[in-house]
Amino acid sequence: MLRIEIDGGEPTTDQLAVGLLANYGHFTAMQVRDRRVQGLDLHLRRLDAQHRELYGEGLPGDRVRALIARALGEVRDAAVRVIAFGPEAPKLMVVVRPPAGPSDRPQRLISVDYQRHLPHVKHIGGFGQLLHGNRAKAAGYDDALLTTPDGVVIEGAIANIAFFDHDGGIVWPEADWLHGIAMQLLERELPSRRAVVRRADLPLYRGAFLSNSIGVTAVSGIDDLAYPVDETAIDRVRGALAAVPWDALDE
């Protein structure tokens, strides 16, 4: 299943060409279940803030909801991406694909020196992240962990990362990252703190996990460091995210 609409209609070749060639815009990605979305207010707020920064005007949430509902049609469960694109007079694209869930297999990460430009914006054109992700896989890892040149941990290539300290607490790296929707929801649901985490500090933690719109995935290692997977701790995080209410798109 793949559906694409632009401004509520079937996309034209010219419209798609703008998106492909301009490489300028922003987006949000969400999972839809029974035509409901967790943290819908946060997705709409993200789109509005990013639109103001990139285009100098807001993006009404009611319009976004209507476009998502239209693109879904009769589909009730899906993975949805809302993309504002174009150098000027931006168009809104809604992409509907089959629903997705997190991997049950713990992930091994390799740290790389890379920082996204405008990290607080979920912008299109993630060449650097894809490049490092592909290189990580070629080296036998599952994905990349982005760090600064002096070794400060930032985020995963397409997810936030958090660590378990030895008291069982959750520590989110303090860095210039994208404040992910799943991260925001988990911060609401579970006690946590933020702290600067350096590569040299990684052995001080007893585990880690990744979070994004697809869900929560355990981390089994970073570089040459192995983390034991604490299923009880991971289940607690997954349970907290699962308990977040799902907001109706059609209201």
TrEMBL record:
Organism this protein belongs to: Saccharothrix variisporea
Name this polypeptide is given: Branched-subunit amino acid aminotransferase/4-amino-4-deoxychorismate lyase
Coiled-coil regions listed: none
Key words of the record: Aminotransferase, Lyase, Transferase
Molecular function terms from GO: lyase activity; transaminase activity
Keyword Transferase: yes
